[in-house]
Structure prediction request, 146 residues.
Amino acid sequence: MINLDVEKKKMYDVIGAIHDVHRYLGPGLNESCYQEAMELQLRESSISYQREMSFHPTYKGVPLQSTFRIDFLCNNDVVIECKAVPELNPNHRAQLFNYMRLLNKPCGILVIFLPKFADIQRYFYDNESKNILAVDGHVIKNFRDI
Prediction:
């Protein structure tokens, strides 16, 4: 079973970097601008990361030709998806949840840079139960039946 306290600590510095970027740039820019600034801030904060990491999902153990690209993978455990939209729709969360599941990564951050204050949503993937969990531990999505 996933230990949420341990996983939350993995996100701490990354969330600080997100706040630094939003505080400096403010709202209203495009997504690529925030991503570029995030890369600079992660590097300055000595947080290991991969930007626009590509991966191929598998079907029954066979890699598919389809390619997905996540915005950032930090500390080899934290998937970050950056958005510059006025509000989220269910597809934004579904995208993050599927990336976490397909990569088997325990931490996910969905950040919306457009509002006056950055909207930072944290989620956790428990590989054992196949659940996506909110910060308080309640189940958001179950992938057991997939």
